[in-house]
Design goal:
This protein is α+β, with helices and mostly antiparallel strands and 192 residues long. Among the domains are: 64 residues, no CATH class; 60 residues. Strands 1-12 form a two-stranded antiparallel ribbon. A two-stranded antiparallel ribbon has the order 2-11. The longest helix is centred in the middle third of the chain and has 31 residues.
């Protein structure tokens, strides 16, 4: 005798999920710096350079003199000639006084004076290496003053912009569960 057996076959349910991911959009607008640079002020003060050129000695060397220099030159020349004339007179007197020497003093003195008149003339002073021009220069330093006016900043901050789309999960059935029961060994086939 056959004992009936029950055979059960089951299948699991298969669940599918349709997933839409969430989306986050972040947008950062640019901030405005608004920088303003004020121009610096630069002041440069330059005092005048003094240049002095004294050409009075050079002019005197070529005979062009100021009235004061001309007067001084004539005074010194006159004094020199006066002292030289005194010295010559003293020397001539000494020569004339020495009668005991056998010299013809009067004739000799006359001859010397005659030759001296022919040799005379203007003898300019010896020029110096710089020709008598004195140049002096006085340089004054430049005064530089810098005023920094700086810069100003007026920033405009903009917050970030967020957009959020939430995600969705939608379940759906791929396959439903089932249970199949069979009775084996019996004449009856029943399906439940």
């Amino acid at each position: 005798m056959q004992i009936p057996q029950i055979r059960m076959e089951s299948t699991f349910a298969k669940l599918g999920l349709s997933i839409n991911k969430p989306v986050i959009n972040i947008k950062q607008p640019m901030a405005e710096m608004n920088l303003r640079q004020k121009a610096a002020t630069l002041n440069i003060e330059q005092a005048r350079t003094e240049l002095r050129i004294d050409s009075s000695q050079a002019r005197a060397n070529i005979g062009l003199m100021t009235p004061m220099q001309f007067s001084d030159s004539n005074t010194s020349y006159g004094r020199q000639q006066w002292l030289q004339a005194i010295a010559e007179k003293v020397q001539e007197g000494d020569r004339l006084m020495k009668i005991y020497s056998r010299e013809n003093a009067i004739a000799n003195i006359g001859r010397e004076k005659g030759q001296r008149v022919l040799e005379g003339g203007y003898n300019p002073p010896v020029p110096s290496l710089d020709e008598g021009v004195d140049v002096s220069i006085e340089v004054k330093p430049a005064i530089i003053n810098v005023i920094r006016n700086g810069m100003s900043m007026d920033p405009v901050l903009r917050p970030p912009e967020f957009t959020y789309t939430p995600g969705k999960v939608e379940p759906y059935m791929i396959e439903y569960n089932s249970l199949k029961i069979d009775v084996i060994g019996s004449q009856l086939d029943r399906k439940m």
